[in-house]
Amino acid sequence: MKSKKEDIYLSILSFGKLHGLSGVTYKDLYKHLHEKQHITKEDLENFNLKRPQDNEESFLKKRHIDVIFEESFPHTHMGGIRAMSMDSYFKLIEHQELVEARVSSRSARRFSFVAIFLAVVTPLASMYLSYQQSKNPITLADAQISELRAQSFDDSNIIEAVAVLSEYQKKAIALDK
Fold first, then answer.
1. Which key words are in the record (predicted)?
2. pLDDT tens digit string along 46-69?
3. pLDDT confidence bin for 1, thresholds 50/70/90
4. For residues 19-27, average pLDDT
5. Which tens digits make up the pLDDT trace of 142-159?
């Protein structure tokens, strides 16, 4: 589980990426963090009035956010607009790729569990069905029996084939000696 500091850091970087080259001001950043519920309305008012010293918790929170913002957005333009550093941009992209990889990994794991389950269950089901079929007697309907009786059976082909096989076996045995 991500800590609140990681959430704030990622929220700041995502906000910076969203604004791209146009940059971000402190005021815009604080408003964004309030919308994402990383800071309270009271914190937002204190940050904008530049007097968070009245509330030590608010002061520490502002200081933490300012440090992250200044490290991630070191390039200052006119009017206090700060641009995101390439290093911070690539850190955000790496994080997003890691999150996507984790999601893909979970999905692949689920599919592998299903495949393993099917690989185990399928042969067991096949064996069970074969066993059940072997326990039941074979029954033929009267129509099937009368159809089989009507067919002529010529065993001469079978007898000839057995004789040929016998000759081959005799020759093979004679060669072994």
1. Membrane, Transmembrane, Transmembrane helix
2. 776 665 566 777 778 888 888 888
3. very low
4. 82
5. 888 888 888 777 777 888
